[in-house]
Amino acid sequence: MGLSSRPFSFWQWPNYTQYIEFQAGFILLQSILFLIFGRSDIYVWILGFVALGLESTLPIPQLISNYKQRSLYGFRMSTLLGWLGGDSFKTVYFFLQGSPLQFKICAIFQLSIDVANAASEAEDLEQALSLAEE
Question: Which UniProt keywords apply (predicted)?
């Protein structure tokens, strides 16, 4: 499989069978925990916060890649606009609908990552325009 650049080779499966076994075990564990603690508001709140928190970190690898490359080369503007538009809409919706706190926190976090990606895009655009003027 080669060397992984991820810490502790996280999420690098030597074969598909091990991946399926892990997923089955994880689903079984979550099912048991839900059967035991499912009526607890604290458990449901924590489970929701973890799920939404993980989802809100999705744009972070792109931000790290942009930072390391000092460029957005190969990253489509339409993707960035889709992220910004969708996450902006989602954040406003959560506030207008009075959604639980974890929804609002994670939406703001994800939108801030989108804005950081957009700021990188703006810097690249400025550099490209200044080079074109020369």
Answer: Membrane, Transmembrane, Transmembrane helix
Where in the chain are the domains?
57-133
> Rounded to whole angstroms, how far apart are CA atoms 26 and 115?
33
Query: What span, in angstroms and rounded, lies between the C-alpha atoms of 118 and 77?
Result: 9
- Give CA–CA dist 26/37, Å, rounded: 16
DSSP letter string, 91-130: HHHHHHTT--HHHHHHHHHHHHHHHHHHHHHHHHHHHHHH
Instruction: Confirm if 73 and 60 have CB atoms less than 8 A apart.
Output: no
pLDDT digits (tens, 9 = 90+) for 81-133: 898 999 999 999 999 999 998 999 999 999 999 888 888 776 666 665 454 45
The candidate with the shortest Cα–Cα distance to 116, out of 59, 69, 70, 58, is: 59
What pTM was estimated for this model as a whole? 0.71
Of 1.10.40, 1.10.357, 1.20.1740, 1.20.1280, the CATH number of 57-133 is 1.20.1280
The answer to whether 94 and 81 have CB atoms below 8 angstroms apart is no
Q: Taking all residues of the chain, what is their mean pLDDT, rounded to a whole number?
A: 84
